[in-house]
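Ticket #4471: structure output looks truncated?

Reporter: J.K.
Steps to reproduce: submitted the chain below (372 residues) through the standard prediction queue, then opened the result file.
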Amino acid sequence: MSNADYSLTGNGSFCTVATLADNIAPLTNTFTLTNLKSVGPGDRFVGMAVLIDDEIVRLDGIGTNTISVSRGCADTVPAEHAAGADVWFFETAASSNNVEYVASGDIAVKILPATTSATMPIEYSPPIALEFNSRFIRPYPPADFKVDGSPWYTEGITLNDLNTALSFTWVHRNRVVQQDVLIGHSESSVSPEAGTTYTARIYLASDDSLLRTVTGITGTSWNYTATMADDDIALIPPVLEYRVYSPQINAYSDWFIDGADAVQDLLASQPPNPGSSCILDGNTVAQPNSTSWTIEPHPTNAGWLAVYGQRLERIFGANACQLMPREKYFDIYPPESRPLTAPTSVNLYIDFCSVRDGYESLQKYRTFITVI
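Returned output as attached by the reporter:
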């Protein structure tokens, strides 16, 4: 996109900004600020909207170097923020070009700072990509979200024989009612829009695989039980470990975990075939059922050792390659497998959002749990 494709569509004012002096937790309400850059008197006032990363907060109090706020306003969820994050007092600086765009479109924006004497040339302004995602019509997420009475991000949440169910609770929010009022995360419930429901998704934390989706939740509570967790964990594919046998040295290898081990590396170019061996060397010497294999002949002894020697020694021991003439072929049989011992605990996480007319809330709550 060239600079000639841009057109001047609106004007705005500079925005007062500061940075966080410290890391803040999702429900911390008082922040210490540094590097305050004010645009003038009245640029900060109680009740205004403030933006930190992707979270909108309401300004409730102004100190010398501090502010107090209400967290998770509008369609946002309280989040952690790192020291140095920008704090934008944007309410009086927000502006619009009064152009209506399609819900799923995207545009590029360039901002041209201007003073009384000059305006930044457009070629010096980097483009900002803005993608529309139907934000205006998405339902607001619920608020005051808790698990067993504690904030959703609490560490050490566990399902076990003593705690057989986790109780998730929340209060409603309403996109329509709240369009002109900022309601904090911890404030009381608002009657939800008609047709609003909630959805919970349970994932395996180790690889983000989806195990369960619960839709159509109504009211202000929902339980995730140990029985549900057991059913979800049963969907997790078992982790297998493998070993192979070498008739050349009459030995089994150690057991290795599939996907990150020497056995799979060794067999990568020769898929095992039941009842046959995998030829690692031998200049395409024929073996039973070898027609389905891709056999890699070694050009020289040194080449063979470079390709396979280190792999063989990793699984059969340091002397494996010395127990046979290198000009001979080295057979290994298809791997045996066995499931690993079941883990004593499994880590899951649950994403929770509101849903209306097929649209999910822009932001979601995520709770990590351990099932023992």
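Triage note (M.O.): checked the attachment and the full token line is present. Residues 269-302, 325-329 have pLDDT under 50 and may be disordered.
Status: closed, working as intended.
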